[in-house]
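Sequence and fold:
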Amino acid sequence: MTNEKLKQLHENVKTFCEALPDNTNLRLGQIYMNQLFDIDQDTYNLITASIFDPFYRDEVLPIFFKYLKSICVD
């Protein structure tokens, strides 16, 4: 994961959320993980099913963001 990819992740999620209809059932953690898969599959695989995985629990998002920032290589 690079800082550029992390920035792109946030931008992609923002764009995706802006296009969602109001009655969507997707949670923010699901959206972040889906977008992460598109941007950096190695990081996605590293996080999936770990304590940092927000897919099923949005309350994990703060440590997800912190972890992503901590593994940025640039």
Notes: The chain is about 60% helix and 0% strand.
